[in-house]
Amino acid sequence: MTSYVALLRGVNLVGRSSLKMAELKVIAEELGLTSVRTYIASGNLLFRSKESEEKLRRMLEKALREHMGKDVGVTLRTPAELDATVRANPFTDVAGNAVQVFFLNEMPPEDLLETIRNRADDERIATGAREVFVAYGERGIGRSRLRIPAAEAGTARNMNTVRKLAQLARETR
User: Fold this and answer.
1) Starting at the edge strand that comes first in sequence, how are the strands of the sheet with 2-8 ordered?
2) pTM, entire model
3) β-strands 124-127, 131-135: how paired?
4) Which of 36, 43, 124, 173 is a plausible cystine mate for 135, CB 3.0–4.6 Å?
5) Cβ count near 32 (within 10 Å)
């Protein structure tokens, strides 16, 4: 059995894609996942399974599509991968709530930095194994106009949430 964290894209954003975490937990349990729990209302699901990452991702996306009537992207990470993401954060000089990690299902493209649009002078960007790290400048996350086309298929969490998910994932038995 392997522990996983599923990161759902675009659920519980203001005015759209509402999904109660209790419903997400039931969906996961109906799929046969064990040790199921959620963390905050932004689509973070912790569980254990014998299935492969790819099979789990497809299962969850299908069940969510059936439940919500729309596609919901899912990205999975193991506790070790989340720990590696925390260690790889190149912006440790920035508050955790001002650093976003965009989780992708594949490696970021080599030309990622050339495709970025609307970048403010004080916004810093770096790539990881299957992540993109962004340290937002003075405008902050909420007012930034930054666009990273390659990250649009993924889902983002701030570094404080990533640290907490890594801790919870290590505890999932």
Assistant:
1) 34-39, 44-49, 2-8, 74-77
2) 0.91
3) antiparallel
4) 124
5) 11
